[in-house]
Amino acid sequence: MALHNPTPRLAFRTARLLGWVVAVLALLAVFALYTAPGFMVMLSDQLWACF
């Protein structure tokens, strides 16, 4: 009799959840940087220097 192994499904769920957590943390970090006026000035200066 074959036994059902739930480990791959659990590993997939864990990896998927970890992916969502990383994506949300990355978005929060980007939004936090946009609230810093000094960062925005530096970013615009660097962007302008490219042209």
Describe the structure.
By secondary structure, this protein is mostly helical. It has a domain at 26-51. The chain is built from two helices and no strands. The chain has helices at residues 7-34, 37-49. It is rod-shaped and about 65 Å long. It starts with 6 loop residues before the first helix and ends with a helix. 0% of the residues are buried.
> What's the number of helices?
2
Shape, principal axes of CA atoms: rod-shaped
Label the structural class. mainly alpha
Terminal CA distance reads 69 Å
Largest sheet: none
- Strand percent estimate: under 5%
Q: Low-confidence stretches at least 5 residues in length (pLDDT < 50)?
A: none
Keywords:
51 residues; mainly alpha; 2 helices; 80% helix; rod-shaped; transmembrane helix; transmembrane
Compile the SSE list and pairings.
Blueprint: H1 7-34, H2 37-49
Keywords: Membrane, Transmembrane, Transmembrane helix
Question: Summarize this, please?
Answer:
It is built from two helices and no strands. With 51 residues, the chain is mostly helical. The chain crosses the membrane at residues 17-36.
